[in-house]
Design the sequence.
């Protein structure tokens, strides 16, 4: 086995970074987390080089942090939307045409 990081470890790190930098949060972070976890499992099983462990770990956790923050942001957006439009409906303002 060679002493360089595998392509999966590098891909996990790149997807984790891309998910933050380009703002494509879930499109890049979900595959980044999956690939990172798969590579960590391969390293633990001995079928991949230990050299990629740091890259896969960072890629996995950066991706997971982005997934968590994206889901929390979507939940907060839904709550704000419900308060705005739910409050309007409660006071009879939704759909009022002047």
Sequence:
């Amino acid at each position: 086995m060679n002493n360089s990081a595998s392509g999966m470890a590098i891909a996990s790190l790149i997807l984790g970074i891309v998910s933050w930098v380009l703002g494509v949060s879930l499109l890049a972070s979900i595959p980044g987390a999956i690939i990172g976890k798969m590579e960590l499992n391969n390293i633990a099983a001995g079928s991949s080089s230990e050299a990629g462990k740091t890259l896969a770990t960072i890629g996995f956790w950066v991706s997971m942090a982005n997934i968590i923050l994206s889901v929390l942001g979507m939940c907060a957006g839904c709550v704000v939307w419900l308060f705005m439009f739910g409050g309007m409906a409660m006071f009879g303002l939704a759909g009022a045409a002047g």
About this structure: The chain has a mean pLDDT of 85. Residues 33 and 64 are 6 Å apart (CA to CA). The first helix runs from residue 7 to 21. Residues 7-90 form one domain.
